[in-house]
From TrEMBL:
Pathway: Lipid metabolism; butanoate metabolism. One of its GO terms (biological process) is fatty acid metabolic process. This is 3-hydroxyacyl-CoA dehydrogenase. Belongs to the 3-hydroxyacyl-CoA dehydrogenase family. The keyword Transmembrane applies. It comes from Amycolatopsis sp. FU40. The keyword Amino-acid biosynthesis does not apply. Residues 187-283 form the 3-hydroxyacyl-CoA dehydrogenase C-terminal domain. Pfam families: 3HCDH, 3HCDH_N.
């Protein structure tokens, strides 16, 4: 896609795993991106990680042939991202942190600019009171890594307007993604089903029924799961998984969502999955 035909410009808040992944995807499809975080050191590291992801995405053939990369601007100033057609918040999975970031950025935007929270579990309506215009607010759940997963869960809140939903869907289609809209609820569809299942898989390992390799092999060979639940957990990030399960447990009361002690112990020990080089498996060094 040439820049002459790019309809959207994205601002992304947060240069963590998902912020970097969404940025790389957008740049790879030719969209300009303003990536915002709190300090220049984080942003300098993010630029290198985006470059690495773009290289890997090209090797894997998941970007359009011959596409000229979009322009990347990194900044600590929210004001520099105020001209975006869509703003995506991808900060840490804590409701109070997200609410603070959303309040600040939404106050700077023109009416009609969609403000999007990228979250795996936190209900959109729970965050809607923090934004200037709830009708412009909705959610996404990009899967990791975004350049490899062609579908995106879109969460329409009780106060989300049709125009905001249409604009977000247009931007996602420009990114080569297929948006599927679901109604608001803790965990939506994917996390509400997948994360308790992974929690049960962790419990099976903790109880000594089978090691991670056997659990995953059975899911792959018997159930057709592409990677198995524990490799999936490592890809999600065990800290992110634990945070998501806490959100689900606190908001639903479902005991199956209470994070398993083995999962919590790994998080305490810094074994976070692929991004730290070790989770349920070893990855030979830190990956970002």
């Amino acid at each position: 896609m040439s820049k002459d035909h790019t309809a959207h410009r994205l601002t992304i808040l947060g240069a963590g795993v998902m912020g970097i992944g969404i940025t790389a995807l957008a740049l790879g499809f030719g969209l300009p991106v303003t990536l915002v975080d709190v300090d220049e050191t984080t942003l300098a590291a993010a630029r290198e990680k985006v470059r690495q992801q773009l290289k890997l995405a090209r090797i894997m053939g998941t970007l359009p042939d011959g596409a000229e990369p979009g322009e990347l601007v990194t900044t600590v100033s929210l004001e520099e991202g105020a001209e975006a057609t869509v703003v995506i918040e991808a900060v840490t999975e804590l409701a109070e942190v997200k609410a603070a970031a959303l309040a600040k950025v939404s106050a700077l935007l023109s009416p009609g600019t969609p403000v999007v929270t990228n979250t795996s579990s936190i209900p959109v309506d729970e965050l809607a009171d923090s934004v200037a215009r709830p009708e412009d607010f909705l959610g996404t759940h990009f899967m990791n890594p975004p350049y490899l997963i062609p579908m995106v869960e879109v969460i329409s809140g009780r106060r989300t307007g049709a125009a905001a939903e249409a604009t977000l869907k247009s931007a996602l289609q420009e990114l080569g993604r297929t948006p599927l809209v679901v109604n608001d609820n803790p965990g939506f569809v994917t996390s509400r089903v997948l994360h308790p299942m992974i929690n049960d898989a962790v419990r099976v390992v903790q109880e000594g029924t089978a090691p991670p390799e056997t659990v995953d092999a059975l899911f792959e060979g018997c159930l057709g799961h592409r990677t198995g639940p524990l490799r999936t957990a490592d890809l999600i990030g065990l800290d992110n998984l634990a945070d998501s399960l806490r959100v689900l447990y606190e908001r639903t009361g479902d005991e199956g969502c209470k994070p398993n002690e083995l999962l919590l112990r790994k998080v305490r020990e810094g074994d976070l999955g692929r991004k730290s080089g070790r989770g349920f498996y070893e990855y030979g060094g830190q990956l970002s």
